[in-house]
Design brief:
The complex is a heterodimer of chains A (119) and B (108). In chain A, strands 2, 4, 5, 6, 9, 10 and 11 form a 7-stranded mixed β-sheet that branches. A 4-stranded antiparallel β-sheet of chain A has the order 1-3-8-7, with no helix packed on it. Chain A is globular, with a radius of gyration of 14 Å. Chain A is mostly beta strands. Chain A contains no helices and 11 strands. The N and C termini of chain A lie far apart (33 Å). In chain B, strands 2, 4, 5, 9, 10 and 11 form a 6-stranded mixed β-sheet that branches. Chain B is globular and about 40 Å long. The chains are: A mainly beta (119), B mainly beta (108).
Chain lengths: 119, 108
Amino acid sequence: ETGVTQTPRHLVMGMTNKKSLKCEQHLGHNAMYWYKQSAKKPLELMFVYSLEERVENNSVPSRFSPECPNSSHLFLHLHTLQPEDSALYLCASSRSATPEQGSGANVLTFGAGSRLTVL
Amino acid sequence: EDQVTQSPEALRLQEGESSSLNCSYTVSGLRGLFWYRQDPGKGPEFLFTLYSAGEEKEKERLKATLTKKESFLHITAPKPEDSATYLCAVRGDYKLSFGAGTTVTVRA
């Protein structure tokens, strides 16, 4: 497989369930990201990992718990979610998380997303 | 605070009818302006990066331009397959900020 792969593509869960989203990148990138996409809103950055170390956490509620066991895999563990958490969750990767002008290192490659519905 | 505003929110075009999308931004230290295309049910796909005012990039029917305050994505003689949501993002000194996107529909 190539690029960034996300599973599952669709997930329906109750507010008391525990589930996980998985992301895998085959690009040799050093940085991985979780974004939340809601209708008619800009993409919201949730977490950034650089070389398996979390470098950014954008005030995300603790019911979302990321895990990055290695530079190719990223998980988002979900528990006790609310209906307003229903959205498309996008995983992305880039060569570098550090701002680098002109090199293309910050170009994001996205997965197809996991559509989450919380009942 | 970095801000990115895209207009219009939606654009309906007839096949062959050229038009432009706008991305206005304020950022501390521009490190790059990115355009992405997103098809329904898919993640955004990278189109262009622009780094300095006056820079232009082209790909098929798309041309992106950059000034110190805004970027335009020009669609020349669009085809139905150009229908998508186009996202603009700006990389500043501290973070990458996205706009809400412009959804383009091209009718045959």
